[in-house]
Write a structure and sequence with these properties.
Blueprint lengths: L5 H11 L8 E2 L2 H7 L2 E6 L9 H10 L10 E4 L3 H13 L3 E6 L4 H9 L3 E5 L3 H15 L2 E2 L6 H17 L5 E5 L4 H13 L4 E7 L4 H8 L21 H10 L2 E5 L1 H15 L5 H12 L1 H4 L3 E6 L15
Parallel strand pairs: 2-10, 3-4, 3-6, 4-5, 7-8, 7-10, 8-9
Antiparallel strand pairs: 1-2
Helix pairs in contact: 1-3, 1-7, 3-4, 3-7, 4-5, 7-8, 8-10, 11-12
């Protein structure tokens, strides 16, 4: 297991800067009053490809040696990593093969295709995803860029918090969603060096709470096919991300499906920004645990904005 270092994050930042946005930090006095905290939203929904995952994907793709380019890259993903890797591969002119659950949002599938990626569908479970991917990987011989359990990816995700710390002074805590733990691991990597006193909280859906249960148990607990509106947070922790979670995360707290949808709608209405359900989990968790964050300066990473506008979670089905 290669654990990425702070120097790896710095190298990633230099490598990916030409290919990504330095995303803005937005605030809302309404949400500050509602939570009793000062909230600073790092808007990765405005990122290239619409999600933070383009940071790790670009670091992996643009770090590939020339002799590995012909066969390209491959991954499995519910959406944002798939489309981010397709974006990065397209920028470098190499093939990208992705395995996606058949239930993944159509907006994310369309983005993969638009960036030139090739999709192979699987069933919506971790076991099916990994089984189908093994077949694709064997057939293509492409370099496997895991969506989160990859040192290159984690180093790239760490650049988000590096920017945030330059944009906002005096943070007491940073909150990000957690599924497999790529963003949280990158956050831990950067903040443990740059701001070790800043507490790191992970936010997770109650219906996909394997990371929270892992944190309490002191070992990885993996669910195979959880069902949640936060489609980007269904995957389990792996050994590399667990290393960062167990050593640096202060706590993992959860929110219900209704709380996630309400928080998403609140951000859409009050901040006028498009973001996906997974990105609403941190605010939902903060609203549920006001006593922890009241009076604190809190950075919140809005991880992505790739939502199906024809199937918003508050629409009647």
């Amino acid at each position: 297991m290669k654990i990425p270092t702070y120097d790896d994050m710095l190298a990633a930042r230099a490598r990916i800067t030409p290919h990504i946005h330095r995303t803005p930090v937005l605030t809302s006095s309404f949400l500050d009053d509602l939570t009793g905290a000062e909230l600073f939203f790092k808007c990765e929904n405005f990122q290239k490809a619409g999600a933070f995952k383009v940071r790790g994907a670009c670091n992996a793709v643009f770090g590939l040696p020339d002799d590995m380019l012909e066969k390209g890259v491959a991954t499995h993903s519910s959406g944002n990593h798939a489309l981010s890797l397709s974006y990065a591969a397209g920028r470098r002119g190499i093939p990208c093969h992705v395995v996606m659950p058949r239930t993944a949002p159509q907006a994310k599938k369309d983005a993969v295709i638009g960036y030139g990626g090739t999709i192979t569908e699987c069933e919506p479970s971790t076991s099916s995803r990994e089984e189908v991917f093994a077949e694709v990987h064997a057939r293509t011989g492409a370099d496997f860029v895991h969506p989160y359990n990859d040192a290159r990816v984690i180093a790239g995700q760490g650049t988000c918090s590096a920017e945030l710390m330059e944009q906002v002074e005096g943070l007491d805590a940073v909150v990000a969603p957690i599924g497999g733990g790529g963003m949280i691991s990158g956050t831990c990597l950067t903040l443990s060096h740059d701001a070790p006193d800043v507490k790191i909280y992970a936010a997770e859906p109650e219906q996909a709470d394997d990371a929270a249960r892992s944190f309490r148990a002191g070992r990885i607990i993996a669910d195979d096919a959880p069902v949640t509106v936060a489609d980007g947070l269904k995957v389990p922790l792996k050994d590399l991300t667990w290393h960062f979670v167990k050593n640096h995360v202060t706590n993992i707290l959860t929110a219900s499906e209704a709380e996630i949808i309400d928080a998403m709608k609140l951000i859409w209405k009050r901040m006028k920004i498009v973001m996906e359900p997974s990105s609403a989990v941190p605010l939902a968790m903060i609203l549920k645990n006001r006593e922890i964050f009241a009076g604190k300066r809190v950075g919140i990473i809005i991880t992505g904005g790739n939502v199906d506008l024809d199937a918003l979670p508050w629409m009647e089905k």
